[in-house]
Design goal:
The chain is an alpha+beta fold. The protein is built from eleven helices and four strands. It has two domains: 9-48, no CATH class; 55-331, no CATH class. It has a four-stranded antiparallel β-sheet, with no helix packed on it.
């Protein structure tokens, strides 16, 4: 495994497994110092001091992160639009585009990103569509995202397991555990029927009727396996772009990203996303940064850099969501009564 740049000066402290390295500036930036050690929890941890990259390079990387995240959300809108059409909901592309980005903006203000989903469902329902049909499509859109993200993470773990710490096996188990229910309910008729029988028992607030309506609208997708398979692949592309956003932000902070660290990004970001699903904090604030510090320590990222990377990535998402704010304000202005 390649740890240091070619030509670096290294020094190993006897009987400690600790190696120091110092090498010349990269791209005109400052010098970079690495501390590498081996321990019972990790096969290799490389701690890098922040690289003082040229401001122009930092700006380019951050702008690239914004562009990549924007593209991922345009792709996310397209997936949602295709699902709506496949379920029989006919809404113009321009309308669903505006609804999607307005929902993206409102994701910033409610736990677990549910605010945006509520807004999207409301907007489409106002056009005369069955609300449970839109809920079913939006739920399926979410499930595709989680499944494809876990699929990417499981593949990345397979590249890290040889010679890596045992906790990567735990991560692999988490990702597989998240994928198995979706596979089981989709391909195994008995599990689907068991889910429906369980739903019928939810009498409180007519949850049985509401949940059954959602399941009824999801059922036709069981017979459209080619479409679902294509959407899983497309969703994996979307999730890869979102992981790449974190990578670009990390690189702008001077975090060294080699092949191993790149795979770790594809493992740690899905873990962060899964941890943010329970509605605990507003848009996962605090959970994302705190858990990010713990996870990225295995990639040799310091606490300050890990916190800054996750917070800056959050700010990138907020910046992209401002497109939705423009649509929302324009809609409100257009609905305002004319006054002479």
């Amino acid at each position: 495994m390649k740890v240091f740049e070619p030509g670096s000066l290294t020094r190993t402290v006897p009987r400690t497994g600790v190696t120091f390295a110092d090498w010349p500036p990269v791209g005109g930036g400052g010098r970079k110092v690495a501390l590498t050690f081996r321990g019972p929890l990790t096969s290799r941890v490389q701690v890098l001091a922040p690289l003082q990259a040229p401001p122009q390079l930092v700006n380019t990387l951050l702008a690239s992160a914004v562009a990549v995240f924007f593209v991922s959300n345009v792709a996310g809108w397209l997936q949602w639009h295709v699902l709506l059409r496949a379920s029989g909901v006919v809404v113009p592309r321009g309308s669903t585009f505006r609804f999607y980005f307005v929902g993206l903006f409102f994701n910033n203000f409610l736990p677990a990103n549910i605010g945006g989903d509520v807004v999207k469902v409301y907007d489409v329902t106002k056009m005369g569509t069955d609300p449970y049909q839109v809920i079913a499509v939006t739920l399926l859109d979410r499930l595709l995202g989680v499944f494809s993200l876990c699929l990417l993470a499981a593949i990345a773990v397979l590249f890290l397991i040889p010679g890596a710490a045992a906790h990567y096996l735990l991560y692999l188990g988490i990702f597989i555990a998240c994928m198995i229910p979706a596979l089981g309910f989709y391909f195994h008729r008995r599990l689907g029927n068991a889910l429906r029988r369980g739903v019928v028992k939810l009498r409180l607030f007519e949850m049985d009727r509401r949940a059954s309506s959602v399941l009824d609208h999801l059922s036709p997708f069981k017979g459209r396996r080619r479409l679902v398979a294509e959407l899983v692949l497309f969703s994996a592309f979307i999730q890869a772009l979102r992981v790449l956003t974190h990578v670009l932000v990390g690189m702008s902070l001077g975090i060294h990203v080699d092949a191993i660290v790149l795979c770790q990004f594809f493992v740690f970001i899905p873990l962060l996303s899964l941890a943010m699903i329970p509605p605990i904090t507003i848009n996962g604030l605090g959970i994302r940064e705190g858990l990010g510090i713990v996870l990225f320590a295995a990639a040799g990222v310091g606490r300050t850099d890990a916190f800054a990377m996750e917070f800056l990535t959050f700010m990138v998402s907020v910046a992209v969501s401002l497109v939705g704010l423009v649509f929302f304000v324009g809609r409100r202005a257009g609905a305002a009564p004319f006054r002479a």
